[in-house]
Amino acid sequence: MNGGGLRAYAVLYLLFLYAPIILLPLFAFNAGTIIAFPLKGFTTQWFQEMWGNPTLRRALTNSLTIAVSSSILATCLGIFAARASTRFAFPGKGPIMGFIMLPMVLPEIIVAMSLLVVLLGAGIELSILTVILGHVLMCTPYAIAVLTTAFSSLDKSLEEAAFDLGETRWGAFRLVILPLVMPGIISALLISFTISLDEFIIAFFLAGNEPTLPTYIFSQLRFPKAIPVIMALGTVLVALSIVLLALGEYFRRRGNARIGATGTGGLV
Question: Exposure of 68 by Cβ count < 10 A (0-12 exposed, 13-18 middle, 19+ buried)?
């Protein structure tokens, strides 16, 4: 394929991928209730209706509670797993890490159905807590992937120097390792938050009667009059996701640069 054909393919691919996202704000500020061209005019009515909807506010509160809890738990588990896999050698490390990362490649509907069967079989009532457990399972592999890069880039001599200066293992981890990988931790936290906030299938199976933003959006798609409000909500979610992912990537790059600079410069 020549250069012109490759550029044309790239442009068409990007249009196919991002054109629906670009259309969201166009129709979110459109005065018409029918999602079609030509546009009827500019309005902020749909955003006002969105903020005034009590069911939507409840779904937003549930989703934020789930996303914050899941991201914190997944990042903490990711720290332990990434630290163990990059610093220590133990029997069965490869299969164990592969098993932990398995949710990244398994279809979510299979994971959701399996969790539903296990939870109902154990007599656990479906609630926000069960959604948090499911989201932790899904977010932890992504947190491990980010944190493994951060931990593997560390210079082991920094930790050894801390031991030589009289620090314990916990002291060296807290005072030396943790500050160096903090950008990676923040990046994993933000990425896990975004994944949890946008996740639908597990929330649909495990939320019970508690609505979340994705399940609320799905339930409203049956009503044509609610579509403009959903467009407004989608615009807000897309903007929030872009900001969080940009921040996560910024902290990931900053962490890699910081670790590289520290590794070449040594302890000060």
Answer: middle
